[in-house]
Amino acid sequence: MLEALYETAAMLLPYIWRKSLAGYHSTTERFTKKPRLAAASIADGVDLTNTPYTPSNVPLTVGEVGLKLTPTDLNQTSSLVAAADYGSQMGQAIAEKLLTDIASLGGGFSRAISNTGVNLTEANFIDAKATLMLQRIPEPHVAVLHTQQAFDLMDSIGTTLATLVGTGGRSIRTESNDLSPRAGRSLGPWLGVDDVFQYVTVPTANAGADSAGFMFGSQRAIAMVEKWATRMETERDASLRASEMVGTSAYAVGEVDDDAGVGIITDR
Questions:
Q1: How far apart are CA 3 and CA 145, in angstroms?
Q2: Is the separation of the CB atoms in 143 and 137 below 8 Å?
């Protein structure tokens, strides 16, 4: 079950600012947001005034997610799947829920590159990258797109930037034919963005007409606190002639730094 969870979500999680509350008597963890300081010219012999340094914090409170399966004895003895498959499927379901929660945060960033009703283009992607750079958000930067947005981006490759080959050479579009998006997988680095992910869990925007993808600064924009990753318990119900299987995870995700993320709103 644990392997199934991390097989689905493992590639994105390293870019999330994560903490664990395992073993602590608390369900809330605070994530520090550091203020941006500015230096100025000073004159010789002039005493400096104090610059207040007042970090703020974003608290995240853990909640449980989970599901229960109740395979009967007759079902289990006649089933086409092994008992281990129940745990694997439950782990994947919890991973889908986790990715849904993370993907929903993209709509909360106050800055967005919007091309409502129009397919995502290479130019939109470059604009999102530029937005983070103008906010002085350090790299690496990561993008999370809906599956359709990812395909639209692939289709747009080479339409904005000049072809980086000589006359008669293979074009960017030709070379990118092997970049077909795969569910839950990284598409690799592109245009200075370290990883581009595509998930069907990215929600809609603008009454369902568009997808609410986003780009963010690694370890800055989004945080996650975890009490336990996943666990499965079984309980026998003799009168029902069945075994109850309960899978749960306890975590919370949230936005920490609004400046470190930018929405990418384009057609679904």
A1: 24
A2: no
Query: 249: closest CA among 6, 7, 83?
Result: 6
pLDDT of residue 104: 93
Question: What pLDDT, in 10s, does the model give residues 153-183?
Answer: 888 877 666 554 445 554 554 555 445 555 5
Strand ranges inside the chain, DSSP E: 17-20, 28-33, 56-61, 63-69, 112-115, 141-146, 195-199, 204-205, 210-217, 222-237, 242-255, 261-267
The pTM (predicted TM-score) of the whole model is 0.83
What is the SS3 assignment for 197?
A: strand
Separation between Cα atoms, residue 189 and residue 180, nearest integer Å = 13
Task: Please say whether the beta carbons of 27 and 227 come within 8 A.
Answer: yes
Give the pair of three-digit tokens for residue 4: 């199934």
DSSP secondary structure code for residue 127 in this structure: H
- Average pLDDT for 225-252: 90
| CA distance readout (Å), 263 to 33, 76, 216 | 20, 46, 9
Q: Which residues of 157-167 are buried (b: 16+ CB within 10 A; e: fewer)?
A: bbeeeeeeeee
Domains of the chain and CATH, by start:
2-35+55-267 (3.90.1690)
Q: What is the pLDDT of residues 122-155, one digit of tens each?
A: 899 999 999 999 999 999 999 999 989 998 888 8
